[in-house]
Design a protein that fits this description.
By secondary structure, this protein is of the alpha+beta class. The chain has a single domain, classed as Roll (Ribosomal Protein L24e, Chain: T). Strands 1-2 form a two-stranded antiparallel ribbon. A hairpin with a 4-residue loop joins strand 3 and strand 4.
């Protein structure tokens, strides 16, 4: 499974461990990913996504999953998040 946030696209970064003697060895900076259940007001159900903690704070700041997905473009979203976004937008226009 890819270490990638489903909402923001935050991915693993690569860098170096640098010792006191200035020896460099490769290392990975993995994002802090968590499985989170979001409640969608438009769909009236829970949606389970694997998101970074930074994305979790962004969702809270924007007023919930529905508002966050309505604002965000599809460029960084995963396939599952794109399906949820499409369902939320169609439910909002139908209501």
């Amino acid at each position: 499974m890819a270490r990638r946030c489903e909402l923001t696209g935050k991915d693993v970064l690569v860098g170096n461990n640098v010792s006191h003697a200035n020896n460099k060895t490769k290392r990975r900076f993995a994002p802090n990913l968590q499985y989170v259940r979001f409640f969608s007001e438009a769909l009236k159900q829970f949606v389970r996504l694997r998101v970074s903690v930074a994305a979790l704070r962004s969702v809270d700041k924007n007023g919930g999953l529905d508002a966050f997905l309505a604002k965000s473009g599809e460029a960084n979203l995963s396939q599952d998040a794109k399906k949820v976004r499409k369902a939320i937008l169609s439910a909002q226009t139908a209501a």
